[in-house]
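agent> call fold_tool(seq_1)
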Amino acid sequence: MRMRFLCLPALLCTAVLLAGCAGVKVGSISPAEYLAQRRGDVLTTGELSTSAQEVLRVIGSDADLCRKDGQACRNALAESSGLSDEQRLSALSEVWLQVALAADKGGTAAQSDSSATTAIEAWLETARHAYAYLFYTARKPRDRAFEDRQTQVRDYYNYAVQQAITGLFKTYRRTGSPSDPTPEVPQVGDWRIETDVSALRLPTSAPLPDELIPAASLTFSGLRNTYRRDGFGAELVAANAKRTDDEATPGPADDKRPPRPPYREMPFPAVTALLLFDGANLDEILRTHTLRIAAYDPYRTANVQLAGQEVPLAANFTSGYGLWLARSDFALQALRSLFGGRDGLTQPRIYLMQPYDPNRRTVIMLHGLASSPEAWINVANEVLGDETLRRRYQIWQVYYPTNAPLPINNFAIREAVTQTLAHFDPTGKAEASNNITLIGHSMGGVLSRLMVSSSEDKLWEALLASYPMQGAQQQRMEEKLAPYLRFEPLPQVSDAIFIASPHRGTDFANNRVSRWVANLITLPVAMLGQLSDISRELIRIAPSTQGQEPLRIPNSIDNLSDRDPFVRLSSGLPMNPRVRFHSIIGNDTPGVAQALSSDGIVPYASSHLDGAASELVIPSAHSVQENPLAILEIRRILREQLRSQPPR
């Protein structure tokens, strides 16, 4: 009996040894760990995803073995009969992605052509297998719409396309000729690469960009939001190294070149690119060494046909705009313009925020004194970030010399707008040339009002009252002054939004600091010559008497004074009755009755206009256009305009 008890422990130990330890153990994980397991992959963590590791274990491998002998691992994945097409292709895409990342990481700024080619080939294989998974397996993308794995593989494709195309472009820039009118894609291994840019709209006569910058690599301070559209393709910015303000530098005095046109198309356009592999079925896609780079304007193309399926095209609508502002140096140039610096602006320019589209309505923005397109940083971005508005509107920004008197800027901006419309739409029948909306802040609002007003004979008669003329002298002066004193509403404009606009001037322009700044303002030499000739003639007509201030050419600050004759007269000019107008006004004087309030610079009494379709007063200082409530109001007005278009 005792022997039986002595043998029992030995029997139990033998049983345990034969059976081994418990086959399954259970534990728990946190929500963060759960998400990391489900969504972590080689792009986000540097390690292969759980899905890829599962597939490797099925074929008797693992991440370490695959890293040590990559070629054997990839061959095993490609040849194993125990995997579905989706498992095989998604795992191969991620494994190739790991190879490409390692090749890029090992490179330097002086990366050799051979190592650059190795990396690009790995990116192409990543994109090829992701493309095959997405479009050439039994299930379609819509069937996997809620699966994390499809989202991961889509990201592999997009990132690989981004890296392959930018890598090819860098190689071309390093080895090709920038002046070549028909550049060829650099040779990469056995690949035959074609390009299709028929759906891309770059600025007219623009050279090849100096850079193709991944939009995802850019971050911005000063912009509240980055607006994108999820989908397929690499989001890029085509950038030119030339600074925006280089164009402001005047040429030599004897420069006989024709003047530059007043319009500038977006110098940093958004581009979305795809890699399309040649083949009609899975086997052909996996064997081919022919592919096509297809580039699109994401403003015009929202969906593309891939393998017989319509899929959304990825897009980034903010990065090109942000890069333009960051590289423009507008703030410094605006000050140079105000004080008559050599490199300051002398004529208005109109910047198109996207390639011209005849089928989109046009919004024209005019900044205020000593400012620039930077005044609209978030306004333009938020408007273009609204899907409904982005599909129906395009934004033009007027950049003008704010040292010039209001009558001169009114004439010059009108001319610039008219020339720009005539260039892009000679017939004047496109949607872009009709029902235009003007949005002006501060002095830009005063100019916007002038552009939708009729001078009738009021300004000219006021001049005659002070400077009596007749005969040939009157005819000569009328010819010289007619562009500035006689004008009619721009017929293409149907709507206007006035923001913190001193329509009746402001007493702020009369204080000591403002007068000191006004005395520092210098007008461009060409403008001074033209105006000095007019002022000398007026002095001969009515010379100043002793003790009376001699006639001087007013500048922009003079014109914004509530005592200025021009602003007082122009505030009463009749506006085109067809134009619907709205007012957005800041109030930085809490506790004061609205009629007596002010934004710190412009009083409510000067900003308010009777007959407005709407008026919104916002607790804000003078830069009210950047207030989120003001931007929401602008978006509301633009949406409302789409619902009730006036007749042309």
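agent> call fold_tool(seq_2)
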Amino acid sequence: MTAATHSSPLPPPDADAVLDGLDPEQRAVATAFQGPVCVLAGAGTGKTRALTHRVAYGVRAGMLQPGSVLAVTFTNRAAGEMRGRLRQLGAGGVQARTFHSAALRQLQFFWPRAVGGELPRIVDRKAPLVAEAAARCRLRLDRGELREVTGEIEWAKVTQTVPADYAAVIAKSARETARDPAETAQVYAMYEQLKRDRSVIDFEDVLLLTVAILQDRHDIADQVRSQYQHFVVDEYQDVSPLQQRLLELWVGDRETLCVVGDASQTIYSFTGATPEHLINFRTRHPNATVVKLVRDYRSTPQVVHLANGLLAQARGRAAEHRLELISQRAKGPEPVYTEYGDEPAEAEGTARRIRDLIAAGVPAGEIAVLFRINAQSEIYEQALADAGVPYQLRGAERFFERQEVREAGAALRGAARFGGNDALLDGMVELPSQVRAVLSAKGWTDQPPAGSGPVRDRWESLTALVRLAEDFAAARPQATLADLVTELDERAAAQHAPTVQGVTLASLHAAKGLEWDAVFLVGLAEGTMPITYAKTEAQIEEERRLLYVGVTRARVHLSLSWALSRAPGGRPSRKATRFLQGLRPGGGRATWTAASGAGGSVELGAATARAAGDEKPVRRGRDRRPARCRVCGRTLTEAGEMKLMRCEDCPSDMDEALYERLHAWREVRARELGQPAYCVFTDKTLIAIAETVPSDERELAGISGVVRRKLTRFGPDVLAICAGENRSGEEGTS
């Protein structure tokens, strides 16, 4: 790590000392005070360092008064970090705030003078008012729809779209919405009326009202401009039209403005953010100084090479302004590309590799698993819990703590208890059908809703429960709804156990602005990356930028993975995301052989392929051949049958006494570990062991469900029990 990546711990003795340790481009940012300045800063290039040293240099050189500078960004965390760095550099009097925080202070101060009286109360939550507005429009919204409509109202306000124009604006744009735009416009109008009737305002009104006062009262605008004479804006690619208008009113006709951004990191367009203001900055300010920061101090050359490759294939206006990063770090390991047979194998393989990294000395807190949608977290929560790896979720609730999942669990519990008297379940014999029927009453459909947002998130969570039920039924064909409820409760209990600081699980959106030593980008299959509802070129390109953000979170270790099918034994119809085509070894050819089963995978590092003299993939693991019944020879397709390696209807040669001993042993081990019994071995795996009666590790490892970790941990006990020893008592376990 070079000196350019760290801030001085103590205030420097003079202005020039502030510039020590800056690279040439960062120094140019810090010393450019003539006219507007636009800093195009790639990921990991030290933009915050350049910004804070710019302000500190101006203050210590006497060019800026601390109280005359307003630095704005988008999150309280980023504003706090900026204030801390400025204090360390001896510029502690500078105001570093979010757009909303700065606007609220001005609104509170000027409201009595501009309007009279006290500022109206700001509502803590829009949802209750939106729900009442919908009811008055004779529309009934469930919880997910309420979040969706609330989000649309927020988008309309930050894009300065009034209720009367909302439907027309939606019709002209490529924005997909879950509800009829005319209905949303109705609710929007009624919501605004309710606020006026009750003399309350919302979060977006803070910006709107500040803009209105500064536009209408020139005396107030002049007073604000006399106080703040120099402006710094971070993450400028995320500015909404409303925030841009407020910034213009703050700055006035002056040119004392410095903006920093990266069009290639625009990933919040669904909230109204647009990179157009950054891209068009030179057009609006022809005499602007433009500085490009491309020296990447965060990531190794291997990570940076992949990041550059992703953007090299991008299209659109943002792509025209992409920055090619140059790593300043020593060489590191090549990114690892891993193709799994199914999603459970991907989750378990990821957890296994994370455990290996921790054992090699990488702190758990310096590792992250990043996914496209929050509903993907459940399987990784489970895999890490099974592997004994502590984890924390960022930007989302744990799967079983989500409101829709809790409500669905309560509905399934009620159906399991009183289902015999529930007409909803009449004629529903199979467990998955029963679950679909129950969740349909909670708003689930077999087709996803249009667009993104809360409604889609809710649907993804409920769909994850449907898929879980399908997998559970495949493994236990005789299972009832009550059995499934018990399974869900056990999973929830295992995942709610208190955890210490551990591996971060987060969506790609929530990972923006963060970094880790090791990053695992998972679920990178077509349909998830890019997401299915990304249809237009602009939407596809935003998905590419989202993956770029994920890649650039990694300092040293980077792993990218995908699964060929959803469940074990499923048809391997998926393929890796199009964004990796031509970038991963063998990515342009259909010659990969996927590994089957829970532990099967293909892992490729670019260096491995190049060492072989070409780009052909290196094959590892077992070939994917059809699984056949060991009794009748029929091809097996169901997960439960593949685990047993026989048809459900074919005769079993299971040693009943051995199964009972294994079952008793499993109960004891599960209690010792504080985990559900299935975390040791599932019932199907115990049956397979009791049918096979393995005599050594090789035979035991050949049984589906006995992965390497479990072989090491439980293998000696299992083989001893199969050999006739009694290991079912407390004292007999190891």
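agent> summarizing second result for user.
The first strand starts at residue 37 and ends at 41. The first helix runs from residue 15 to 18.
agent> awaiting next instruction.
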